[in-house]
């Protein structure tokens, strides 16, 4: 434990020294060439996980490398307000106090939310520095702060003026537990084995039936039509006739539609526009009414008669019992299918019709597609992956039924526009604050603001610009935009990366970043994502506490291959960290040999400069050093950090320590200049990856300058 505390003391000492010396700060007025790195903002609601620790280690290595190359480096940190996740976490805490949003009301709930935000932020923020992140903390951004709020309003206003915004009832994905619309991209899919029911619908005024396979008999109450595939051999004769809904007696028109899947069920599809995206589109084209059997709380509506108020599973069972009593079930089959669930709370998602705000995405996607070549994607295939998605993009549902977030900046005259209709001819105003003007119709101020907030990604999509002060033309925006480097896990490539590209080009007419690095996902040995529910997570803080920051960082660089997932476990991480902890010990032993165990004859002398090399061993180690400088530099420039660390480990431990140092013992005084020079350069090459031990040892060597952070990057 003494070693652990000593290591932590060293880390705290040097981090404080760097920060207080201002080494992390960017200088927009500097004549140095800029290099900017944008940190993906972690969610406010939790401690950093192992993947984010790797992300931070990658960012910091590149930032330190570029500083040593002489760039004015900006590594900008920030935190995302995480709308749905934060609100869900807070509501759980409030429920333990017997409180709800309804009991508190919006204003008091928001007071509690901001108080909780401060509590989380303080404890959360302290952990950031644990990985030696050399970020410019003076520029840290929170996605609900005024600077971002102004940018988000400008984004909304411009979309409105350009007629890319609209509000309307449309089929969306609804999470009953979170109580809000979510994007398709915010869903996960679980394979489930369920029953497929083949239900008979009698043809009006005949004894004929049409059989339809459904996994959701509880939604039959909301059926408004029946579609069959083109030229169906059995059902084509029924086109233009009506079938009778077995549960409520309603007449359902039968028609053909090419979108019906021939291979599913009987080739006939019950159309429930209120509960399925495909049904919604088919229903719209065939002018069918839209009904709801399930409401936004995940319970049955009044449409379902005596099932009203039941949860879906219970209603399904009772619907089946009713259909069996009516003799309407022809047969049942087991089938396995993918069920969409909310990625946050794992609740089954319900497609519903809801009035939401949308952004028309096609013009933005088209502009992005024309500029994808300007971004260096790592790995390269992500350019195609993102481009293919952009070609098929649908309108973006940007409103969320939450209170935590950027409230939609639309005000309605409650007297003249009580239904909150939207349009440039309606009694409404786009404004960030309550309008200080009268309604044009009634001449009074009965303004009420839209109840919903904007999707978290609406503000996060502006991250590259909002962090630098857009929509103002700031000095920071001129100097550091577009960003030189951005990194992300692949799982948010559409939610975040694609949107940053679209919004950057739309509002700034520039790509948001030059290099887009997708690091792989860290998974357990079975290939599963780390999660609390599975109990397979690995805390980066536990690793740091046991092995130190430098060793943990080095262990993570081995997994930083662009686009390649890594499998690991706590045991494997401990083994890797232990190896690099031992590597740190090796560095200390090298230092002791070179400096503390200098021969008495040269004890009080600084090593002379390295001159003409006559000894074969000296020549060979200098050649190997030059090769290592070239390799590490090339791999850092190409963001191949795993190869750079491999090259340094191999050179320092094996070629320098095992071979050269052993041979130098026979000619110690003569070899001293080479020993000191090679070790110092080795520490400087290693600094981006192991910042603490390299600073500690470098300071004890003969050197120039205040910190290893400020030395010039070694050249071959």
TrEMBL record:
EC number(s) on file: 6.1.1.9
Listed SUPFAM superfamilies: Anticodon-binding domain of a subclass of class I aminoacyl-tRNA synthetases, Nucleotidylyl transferase, ValRS/IleRS/LeuRS editing domain
Spans traversing the lipid bilayer: none
A cellular component term, taken from the record's GO annotations: cytosol
UniProt-listed GO biological process terms: valyl-tRNA aminoacylation
One function term, GO molecular function aspect: ATP binding
Keywords carried by this UniProt record: Aminoacyl-tRNA synthetase, ATP-binding, Ligase, Nucleotide-binding, Protein biosynthesis
Class of this enzyme: ligase
Residue ranges annotated for the Aminoacyl-tRNA synthetase class Ia domain, each copy included: 13-565
InterPro entries, per database record: aa-tRNA-synth_Ia, Anticodon_Ia_Val, M/V/L/I-tRNA-synth_anticd-bd, Rossmann-like_a/b/a_fold, tRNAsynth_Ia_anticodon-bd, Val/Leu/Ile-tRNA-synth_edit, Valyl-tRNA_ligase
All residue ranges annotated as the Methionyl/Valyl/Leucyl/Isoleucyl-tRNA synthetase anticodon-binding domain in the record: 618-714
Gene3D superfamilies, per database record: HUPs, Isoleucyl-tRNA Synthetase, Domain 1
A family per Pfam: Anticodon_1
Record's catalysed reaction(s): tRNA(Val) + L-valine + ATP = L-valyl-tRNA(Val) + AMP + diphosphate
NCBIfam families named in the record: PRK05729.1, valS
Name by which UniProt lists this protein: Valine--tRNA ligase
């Amino acid at each position: 434990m003494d070693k652990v505390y000593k290591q932590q003391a060293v880390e705290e000492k040097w981090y404080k020294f760097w920060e207080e010396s201002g080494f992390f700060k960017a200088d927009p007025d500097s004549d140095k060439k800029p290099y900017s790195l944008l940190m993906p903002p972690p969610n406010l609601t939790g401690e950093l996980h192992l993947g984010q620790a790797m992300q931070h280690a990658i960012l910091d290595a590149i930032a330190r490398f570029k500083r040593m190359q002489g760039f004015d480096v900006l590594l900008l940190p920030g935190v995302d307000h995480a709308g749905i996740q934060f609100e869900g976490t807070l509501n759980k805490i409030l429920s333990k106090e017997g409180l709800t949003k309804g009991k508190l009301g919006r204003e008091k709930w928001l007071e509690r939310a901001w108080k909780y935000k401060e509590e989380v932020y303080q404890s959360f923020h302290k952990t950031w520095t644990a990985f030696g992140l050399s970020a410019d903390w003076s520029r840290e951004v929170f996605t609900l702060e005024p600077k971002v709020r102004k940018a988000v309003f400008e984004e909304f206003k411009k979309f409105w003026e350009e007629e890319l915004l609209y509000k309307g009832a449309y089929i969306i994905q609804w999470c009953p537990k979170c109580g809000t619309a979510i994007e398709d991209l915010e869903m996960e899919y679980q394979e489930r084995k369920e029953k497929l029911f083949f239900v008979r619908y009698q043809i009006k005024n005949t004894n004929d039936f049409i059989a339809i396979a459904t996994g959701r008999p509880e939604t039959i109450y909301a059926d408004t039509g029946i579609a069959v595939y083109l030229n169906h051999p059995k059902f084509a004769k029924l086109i233009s006739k009506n079938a009778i809904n077995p549960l409520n007696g309603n007449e359902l028109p039968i028609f053909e539609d090419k979108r019906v899947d021939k291979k599913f069920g009987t080739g006939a599809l019950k159309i429930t526009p209120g509960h399925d995206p495909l049904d919604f589109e088919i229903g719209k084209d065939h002018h069918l009414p839209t009904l709801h059997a399930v409401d936004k709380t995940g319970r049955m509506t009044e449409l379902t008669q005596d099932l009203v108020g039941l949860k879906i599973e219970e209603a399904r069972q009772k619907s089946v019992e009713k259909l069996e009593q009516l003799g309407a079930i022809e047969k049942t089959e087991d089938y396995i299918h993918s069920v969409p669930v909310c990625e946050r709370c794992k609740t089954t998602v319900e497609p519903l019709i809801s009035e939401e705000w949308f952004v028309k995405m096609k013009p933005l996607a088209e502009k992005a597609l024309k500029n994808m070549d300007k971004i260096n994607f790592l790995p390269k295939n992500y350019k195609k992956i993102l481009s293919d998605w952009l070609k098929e993009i649908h309108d973006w549902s940007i409103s969320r039924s939450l209170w935590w977030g950027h409230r939609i900046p639309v005000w309605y005259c409650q007297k003249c526009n009580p239904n909150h209709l939207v349009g440039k001819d309606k009694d409404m105003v786009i404004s960030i604050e309550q309008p200080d003007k009268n309604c044009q119709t009634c001449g009074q101020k009965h303004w009420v603001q839209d109840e919903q907030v904007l999707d978290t990604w609406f503000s996060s999509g502006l991250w590259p610009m909002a962090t630098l002060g857009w929509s103002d033309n700031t000095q920071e925006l001129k100097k550091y935009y577009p960003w030189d480097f951005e990194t992300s896990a692949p799982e948010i490539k559409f939610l975040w990366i694609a949107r940053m590209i679209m919004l950057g080009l739309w509002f700034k007419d520039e790509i948001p970043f030059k290099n887009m690095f997708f690091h792989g996902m860290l998974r357990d040995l079975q290939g599963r994502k780390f999660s609390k529910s599975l109990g397979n997570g690995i805390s980066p803080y536990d690793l740091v506490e046991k092995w130190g920051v430098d060793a943990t960082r080095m262990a993570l660089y081995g997994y930083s291959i662009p686009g390649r997932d890594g499998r690991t476990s706590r045991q494997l991480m401990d083994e890797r960290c232990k190896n690099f902890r031992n590597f740190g010990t090796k560095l200390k032993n090298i230092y002791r040999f070179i400096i503390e165990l200098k021969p008495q004859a040269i004890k009080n002398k600084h090593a002379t400069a390295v001159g003409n090399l006559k000894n074969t061993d000296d020549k060979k180690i200098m050649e190997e050093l030059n090769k290592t400088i070239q390799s590490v530099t090339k791999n850092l420039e190409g963001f191949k950090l795993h190869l750079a660390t491999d090259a340094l480990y191999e050179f320092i431990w094996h070629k320098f320590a095992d071979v050269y140092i052993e041979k130098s013992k026979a000619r110690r005084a003569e070899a001293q200049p080479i020993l000191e020079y090679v070790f110092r350069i080795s520490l400087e090459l290693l600094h981006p990856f192991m910042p603490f031990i390299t600073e500690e040892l470098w300071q004890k060597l003969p050197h120039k300058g205040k910190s290893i952070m400020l030395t010039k990057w070694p050249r071959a």
